[in-house]
Structures are given as structure tokens and as C-alpha cells.
Design brief:
elongated, Tetracycline Repressor, domain 2, Arc Repressor Mutant, subunit A, mainly alpha
């Protein structure tokens, strides 16, 4: 298999995020068409996972829904597991974006983490069925678990720890808290929120994420009185 033909996570993330990003605007017609095919396959797969459950969807089902040949799928993805692993890569990329914002110093750490919570809810928040399909597939598939372990448990938590450290240095987050533990709590708060929302479905995941973030932030933030000391 020629792995050089597979889409890179960053290219797919950019194509999913916005057609107006500079890199996407500079794409030639052929490259843009390839990006559109990758995105169509990804979105069709997510829809089928939500409707039927991850184990019950085949590559053929995905390519039929996307109206492309089976061989086209393997031009962009190594396997069905790899396709779903893109979700983990997209979420990891959002954490990377948050770290860049934190390091720039242009926004408060509270704003950065709040923005991250809401951004992370975008794709799984399409429907409770999709959220349940994603969560169940993370548990059922060894390949997807490996993607999750690398992107969330390792890279994601490392970047979150750096964001928390920046918040402590600026006096926004209680310096007595262990930054690694707070980073873990960020992930626990979001994944727990996603799980509970997937069971109830109302209101929108964004609303649940907002409430979870506010509770989390009150638990770790330095109070206004302490900041004035």
C-alpha cells in the first residue's frame, strides 16, 4: 500500500475547518478536489456510524454513501479505524491551536480553555447517536484506541499541561494544584460531558460543554481577592 497517498491529518483538519484558510485557498484544482473527496468520505462515515453503529459499517458502505469507488477510500485512509482516528487527530489539533493561543499571550487562559471546550464539541455534537457511536468505537476497536491513546492521553494531555502551567504563571490558575492533574481533569470533564449528553441528547452539547467548563474553572481558578493580594 502506498502510504504517501493517504491524507495528512493537518490537511484534512484544514479542509474540515474552513475553505477560506490561506492554505486551502492556495490549493490547485486537483488538490482541492482531493480535499473535498476526503471530507466527503469522512462525513459520510460519521453519518453511517451514527445511524448503524461503528461495527456495522463497512468500507463499501462508506464509499457507496460518498459515491466513490472502494479504491478511492484507500487512496486517503489506511482503514476504517484510521478514518475514525482522524476524529482524535482533529481534536488533538484543536488542543494544539489552544496551546498556540496560550503561548501568544493575546488571550487569557480562561478564554483559551473555554474556547477549546466549545471547539471540541463541534464534531461529536452533530447528534447524540454519533457521540454514542464514537464512544463505543473507541472502546471496541484496538486500532482506534491506539489513536486515542496517542492523540488524547499522550500528546493532548502534554499540551494541556503546558496551557495549565501558563495559567499558573499568569496567576489565573491556583499554583498549588498539580498541572498534570488539572490537565487530566480538563479531559475528564469533557469526555464525561460528552458521555452524559449522548445519553440524554438535550439541550445541545455546546450548552452542556459551557456548563461543565464553568464548574471546572471555578474549581481551579484563583479568586479575584487572591489575585489582588
Amino acid at each position: 500500500m502506498n502510504k504517501s497517498r493517504h491524507s495528512s491529518p493537518s490537511a484534512l483538519v484544514e479542509a474540515l475547518a474552513s475553505e477560506n484558510l490561506p492554505r486551502v485557498r492556495r490549493m490547485g484544482r486537483r488538490e482541492r478536489r482531493a480535499a473535498e473527496t476526503r471530507v466527503r468520505l469522512f462525513h459520510c462515515a460519521l453519518q453511517l456510524f451514527a445511524e448503524r453503529g461503528y461495527p456495522n459499517v463497512t468500507v463499501e458502505d462508506i464509499t457507496e454513501a460518498a459515491d466513490v469507488g472502494k479504491g478511492t477510500f484507500f487512496n486517503y485512509f489506511e482503514s476504517k479505524d484510521h478514518l475514525l482516528g482522524v476524529m482524535a487527530e482533529i481534536q488533538s489539533d484543536k488542543v494544539k491551536e489552544a496551546l498556540t493561543l496560550a503561548q501568544s499571550g493575546e488571550q487569557t487562559i480562561c478564554w483559551v480553555l473555554h474556547h477549546l471546550f466549545l471547539r471540541s464539541a463541534e464534531e461529536p455534537g452533530r447528534s447524540p447517536d454519533l457521540a454514542r457511536a464514537l464512544l463505543s468505537s473507541f472502546l471496541a476497536s484496538e486500532g482506534v484506541r491506539r489513536h486515542m491513546a496517542r492523540n488524547m492521553a499522550a500528546d493532548g494531555r502534554r499540551m494541556l499541561t503546558q496551557i495549565i502551567a501558563a495559567g499558573q504563571k499568569r496567576g489565573e490558575i491556583d499554583f498549588r494544584l498539580k498541572k498534570e492533574k488539572v490537565a487530566l481533569q480538563v479531559q475528564q470533564a469533557f469526555v464525561g460531558t460528552l458521555l452524559l449528553w449522548s445519553l440524554e441528547g438535550q439541550p445541545a452539547l455546546e450548552t452542556w460543554a459551557e456548563e461543565s467548563f464553568q464548574h471546572f474553572w471555578r474549581a481551579v481558578a484563583v479568586s479575584d481577592q487572591e489575585q489582588k493580594r
